[in-house]
Give the backbone structure.
Amino acid sequence: MNAPSDNVIETRRLSKSFGDVHAVRALDLNVQRGEIFGFLGPNGAGKTTTIRMLLDFIRPSSGEAVVLDGSGADERVRKRIGYLPGDLHLPARYTGNELFELYAALRAGCERKRTDDLVERFGLDPTRTIGELSTGNRRKVGIVQAFMHRPELLILDEPTSGLDPLLQAEFQHLMREAVDDGATVFLSSHVLPEVDRIADRVAILRDGRLVVVSTIDELREKARQVLEFFVNGDANTAARAFEGVPGVVEVSVEDDAIRVVSEGSIDAVVKAAATIEVRRMVSLDHDLEQLFLSFYREDQPE
Amino acid sequence: MIVARRQLADRRVNVMFWAVGMVATVAFVVLLYPSIEGKAGFKRMVEQLPSAIKAIIGSNEKYSIISPEGYLHGRLFTTLGPMLLTIFGIGLGASCIAGDEGEGTLELLLANPVSRRRVAGQRYLVLVALVLFLAAVAAVTTVVLAALIGGSMGRLSAAHIIEAMFGSACLALLHASVAFAIGCMIGKRSVAVAAAAVVAIAGWLMQVITASVPDLHWLAAISPWRWYMREMIIVTGLNATATLLPLVLCAICAVAGIAVFERRDLR
């Protein structure tokens, strides 16, 4: 066997058309071993189509996808993948146990204990038929089957949709643990908060095209930051300290609060703030979302 | 055979109901025989029917409807038997791939280390096994009840009864294989059922028509029902036209269906 490459997923000019609809266009992606890779884009951007090509459910119109140094069409490759579909349909007549037993038999070499641990961890009743379960509990069945064989690569399509916040946190732990054990996670989502705390790098897809690939830190750097300074004395006077400071885009005053919007490094802003009397400071780090949305829109920033 | 075992477990309850229905149908037909045995009036009535109607009720020139061979041939082996087996086979055949695909559960199964060929192939084998199982249930019921009734019915060859029902199963398997293949190719259960039903009904109509218009040899030649009914298996035993011909077509359907399924996009 060849030495494993650093790329767990590598797509080259990967494209898929359905008739006149170009769902994915010339996608070049590299997902590196051991990272959590966020695959972002609005609904209909081609995320699920890409994932279905990675798993060989549909075949590319052109280009190719290399997964774990092979192809998703190869059973030996799929044995090393854990997959959680976004649109999860489980056989309604099976119990959780029946499903896990079937998948364990097909995958061969699953530890029973691992499955039991996951079932317990997510508080799932595996003796009930899946048709009887709530949407959230069905997601749990989906999660357990994706992680039960300790796969090298997890392909997770909108994994936390339909999960309550407690379970979302538990799920994030589970992803972290998998990565700590050497797994790679390919995580698709249409919302940033689902991935920005956990992903190392993100790709943003729009209309089947790759808009940007970047680390979350780089994105953060590009993102605007909003700081609010509450001052003693006249806020209007104090606000002059931020005039002409590098990176400051906007300064506004409301009562005793000065709102400063800045781009890039915030160093100069903090130094400027040191010259005035600040009682309290609030950082509103919401603008990663704004930046993300700007990538979604037709006319993106340079 | 993990996929096959699971498929058998999935179908267990359904097949048991079908088996009960099969036993009831066969019992109803066979146990009715004593009430028409030797009834010359009934025989005359049937003989006066137009030939197309005779074909529909399965009447035969050589063996009258009131003889045990003619009765079983007409009421069971060329009508209820193959029809029930065909309906069962088409439903199951269409479900093998297209059923799961329509429900959206096929992709998660195929995300496992199992090839499309293995899933489709093993499910096809289960389909064949279950159609043969139902035919065996019907055949054994017929043999047992014929022996119980005794008389001329009891003197029928058990081997020929079983062979006739095997012929029915071959005919049913042909239609089941068409449903399986279309389901594999298109991925839509309703289309697969419809296509196989069209083949079955068209073939059956052809044999009815050729029975009344004997000149249409070419029509008879392409009707699978005619292949099966041309000889009375209950009298003559199995023949190649009734078995090998449909079984070869079954194999072609299965191979073609799986080959297309392996290459196409899932829905």
Notes: The longest helix of chain B spans residues 68-103. Chain B touches chain A through 19 residues (CB under 8 Å). The two ends of chain B are 25 Å apart (CA to CA).
